[in-house]
Amino acid sequence: xxxxxxxxxxxxxxxxxxxxxxxxxxxxxxxxxxxxxxxxxxxxxxxxxxxxxxxxxxxxxxxxxxxxxxxxxxxxxxxxxxxxxxxxxxxxxxxxxxxxxxxxxxxxxxxxxxxxxxxxxxxxxxxxxxxxxxxxxxxxxxxxxxxxxxxxxxxxxxxxxxxxxxxxxxxxxxxxxxxxxxxxxxxxxxxxxxxxxxxxxxxxxxxxxxxxxxxxxxxxxxxxxxxxxxxxxxxxxxxxxxxxxxxxxxxxxxxxxxxxxxxxxxxxxxxxxxxxxxxxx
Length: 281
Ligand SMILES: Nc1ncnc2c1ncn2[C@@H]1O[C@H](COP(=O)(O)OP(=O)(O)OP(=O)(O)O)[C@@H](O)[C@H]1O
Fold this sequence. Notes:
Layout: E1 20-31, E2 38-49, E3 53-57, H1 64-71, E4 79-84, E5 87-88, H2 94-104, E6 105-109, H3 120-131, H4 137-146, H5 162-175, E7 180-184, H6 192-209, E8 213-216, H7 220-223, E9 228-233, E10 236-242, H8 246-259
Parallel strand pairs: 3-8, 3-9, 6-7, 7-8
Antiparallel strand pairs: 1-2, 1-4, 4-5, 9-10
Helix pairs in contact: 3-5, 5-6
Residues 31-32, 38, 40, 58, 60-66 line the site of adenosine-5'-triphosphate.
């Protein structure tokens, strides 16, 4: 397949499709019809830069989860195009899409979603086992050490803390070195210390191994771990922030929460990072 360039010039953070792990090009997603019609995404164009940690933020109902699901091939768009690792998802049939999700996308969910009867190690290798692939031994070793689970590998999820379970889930998502790891509120069920560990791990996986990571979060202190924050409002991109810190993210969120709708569509301003007070972890 020939990858045509996005039709709009304002893809965030990268100038060429080749620099992007994934992108959404004029994506709309409509649920229901008639009186119950909801435009969850309203012509979104954005790029997910390769090898970086991107956070998606916005008020409740702004379309964060819908966007993530469309980018990850978990949901179909109503119109527009989603390209992941050079593959146009909107052209794939169900089987090809299922295979792509299995082989080229990693997921981390708020609720961990581990298999309770399997050990930590078996959970980590499960997607590769299902796909009939052997994970490289040296890489698996490195991964286990990077998530700090060396002495917990034989434990089942019920024998692990929430933070440990989420680190298993992160290792499972990272194991196949997917095009993108998508994390949906990964710290939502964790105490703050465990949350920081998981966020540090996602950030380090981008920095050390060039893993592209996308995280949906409500939490400005979590978003501050990312390299880039994309803000949504009413199903549209309302701006972005490079090298975010907690206070600046909080300010932007207050503006979005207060203004809602069109006022939130402030121009993307990558230069406006590093506001007073810092708060960057
Ligand atoms: N399956 C669905 N059927 C109908 N409407 C839906 C469906 N999923 C989402 N929506 C609507 O689409 C809009 C965006 O929802 P979405 O869950 O993407 O927002 P969000 O920003 O992730 O919200 P939250 O932060 O509360 O999780 C909302 O108005 C929501 O009610």
